[in-house]
Each structure stands twice: as C-alpha cells, then as structure tokens.
Design brief:
hydrolase; NagB/RpiA_transferase-like; single chain; binds fructose -6-phosphate; Glucosamine6P_isomerase; carbohydrate metabolism; 11 strands; about 30% helix; Rossmann fold
Length: about 250
C-alpha cells in the first residue's frame, strides 16, 4: 500500500485525478470502477478539466459503479445514477453504452446481481477501482459484518451509514435502507485500487484500515492484502497515522 498525504481536499483531488489520468493515458480502454459520495467529487471535477484540455479521453473506457440505492427511482436527485451523470458523465466523452451503474429497481435482484458481476468479468475485470471509505470503514456498501461479503449483493445499510447519508435527503425517513453493492470480493479482484479520504471523521477508519487487524468488522482492512493499493488522503484523515508510513505530497 502506498499512502500519499496531501495538505487539503483540493490537493487530494488533484493527486487522485493525476493517478486516474495516468491509468487512462496508458490504457485508454481501461475498465474503471467508480464511487459516489462527497470524497471523489473534487477528483471528478479535475478529470473533467483534464478532458476539456484534451489531456484525457474516456471514449474507449468502460465504467462500473460500486453501488446504488434500492427502490429509489434512478431520476431521483439522490440516486447514484443522477450523481454520476451530474458530476462526471455529462461532461466527458464516455459512451452511454459503456456506463454501468447497478439498477436499484431491478425486477429480480438475485438474477441481476449475478449479471452485474458477470458483466464486469466479461469486460475483462476492473483495471482501476476508485474507493471512498465510510466512517465505519465500509467500502462500497460492504458494512461491518461477521464475514467479508464476496459478491455483488443487495445489502442492508447500517444506522451509521443511513445517518451519514441523511445529509442529502429532506428527512431521515427518506433515506434508503438498502443498496446494491459490489462485494468486497468483487472490489478485491480489481487490478489497481485508488482509495480517497478527507477530513477528521475518516481518521479512525483510515488508521484501522491500515494498521488494524484484517477483520470483516473493518471492511476496508482487507485491502492490506491487495498488492496494488494507492491511498490518497488529506492530513486530517491521516492524523492517526505514523508519519514514517506515508509520503507527504
Ligand atoms: C459510494 C460508496 C461509499 C462511500 C463512502 C464515503 O459509492 O461506495 O462507500 O465511498 O460512504 O462517502 P463520502 O465520500 O460521502 O464520505
């Protein structure tokens, strides 16, 4: 695991976008795994700037999103479908047919999750997976549990995740309680992983992910076993880490 610590959110977003762009330049038909949430927004803005300057193109890229709320219409302002289109897809040259976001309104979820997993496989697997991290160290919506969730599944969100997500909804009752999420196993199969975190509220999760036991109660801790993980965080998210373990950038 290579850990870069940046001064602030802006620098974290730039460094992450540079990493992302490097993958896309070296392999224009990259299969990228994408995350939503506040953390990658800045990186997506930086990628749009790079695209507009002609430095990168998504024309041949294929994307798979990590997760989507269950039973929220995709046109809802809080769906991850809307988020991804507003924050990234509407501003770049990715082909609509190359965008994959789990369908939170699928008719037969059991069948659908198998198909999503199979589609990732048939695209050749994920070259670069972008991750944020929850305060409880979830990745995707793989919440703390007794076992690591292997495959894409419908999951129950924990109360802490529902509370964290409520900032986007008018009332807590409107926050979906379930989501489709790629499993920890599906995430782990990615060839490269780029995890971002910003702010003090993530410091404990980051420390547990890097220095704690590998434990499904800390879903991100599984990444200790992955051979190609780059962590890009700001100094507040790094405040519990030993300075000798990271690169200040
Ligand atoms: C979103 C996702 C989640 C978020 C995490 C952090 O697609 O997979 O794991 O990355 O909840 O969210 P933010 O960035 O809003 O703090």
């Amino acid at each position: 695991m290579v850990i870069y610590v940046c001064d602030d959110y802006g620098k974290m977003s730039e460094v992450a976008a540079n990493q992302f762009a490097a993958h896309l330049i070296l392999k224009p038909n990259s299969v990228v795994g994408l995350a939503t949430g506040s953390t990658p927004e800045g990186m997506y803005s930086e990628l749009i700037k790079k695209y507009k300057k002609g430095e990168i193109s998504f024309e041949n890229a294929v994307s798979f999103n990590l997760d989507e709320y269950v039973d929220l219409p995709k046109e809802n302002e809080n769906s991850y479908y809307t988020f991804m289109h507003e924050k990234l897809f509407n501003h770049i040259d990715i082909k609509a047919e190359n965008i994959n976001i789990p369908d939170g309104n699928a008719k037969d979820f059991e069948k659908y999750v198998e198909e999503y997993e199979a589609k990732i496989e048939s695209a050749g697997g994920i070259d670069l997976q972008i991750l944020g991290i929850g305060q409880n160290a979830h990745i995707g919506f793989n919440e703390p549990d007794k076992v690591f969730l292997k495959k894409t599944s419908v999951v129950d969100l924990t109360q802490s995740t529902i509370d964290a997500n409520s900032r986007f909804f008018d009332s807590i009752d409107e926050v979906p309680k379930k989501a489709i999420s790629m499993g920890t196993g599906s995430i782990f199969k990615a060839k490269n992983i780029l995890l971002l975190a910003s702010g003090k509220s993530k410091a404990e999760a980051i420390n547990n992910m890097i220095n704690g036991e590998i434990d499904p109660q800390v879903p991100a801790s599984i990444l200790q076993l992955h051979s190609n993980v780059v962590v890009v965080i700001d100094k507040e998210a790094a405040e519990l880490l030993d300075e000798s373990t990271y690169i200040r950038i």
